[in-house]
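::Amino acid chain::
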Amino acid sequence: MIRILLADDHPVFRRGLDLVLSGIADFRVCAIAEDGGQAVELSELHRPDVVIMDLRMPVLDGIAATGRVVSRTPPPAVLVLSMFGDEDLVLAALRAGARGYLLKGAGEVQIERAVRAVAAGEAIFDAQIASRVLAYFDQPTDPALAALPMLTERELQVLRLMDRDLGNAAIAAELGVALKTVRNHVSNILAKLQVRDRYEAMQRLHARDQELR
């Protein structure tokens, strides 16, 4: 029997998913959480084998909730089921400890297969997401990361696109992420480099590139 905890803040989606999973002979939905905080509490109380986790939830978002849920021993397998497939969210979920990531357009058979896979210790991803994740990890590491260790790989990537004189909208299109995500990255870059504007940030990048030559 695979014991499952559902965590999603949309009541209609929760009910539908509960009906689907409860109709599978060896699946049992042992608890349902309406937000990330409840997901952590109910996971500790019911000790599920699998937690199906939404990401955009009140009280505690799914990324933070995943990190807390998998910190216990033994950890449940977390399968993210989200409307959002932004690369940044996928990578954040993986870093937090998720074993799988599906989009909410996934069919019943795909969800059942994913639950069984993560419960067995495997990793599973929506095909579209898997190709992007593999492409991300196949990218060569930028040597400037060693010279600008305060920046993440993604932030350095955004900084390099800024240096190509791309605006936020163009960067978002290039990376396939939301405009708001790019704006957040740019704000983080300026704060971490302790500079006033994009021009000063690019000057810092040029100086580090010069040092590496």
Notes: The longest strand covers residues 27-33. The chain has two domains: 2-134, 144-212. The mean pLDDT is 87. Strands lie at 2-7, 27-33, 50-53, 77-82, 100-103, 124-125.
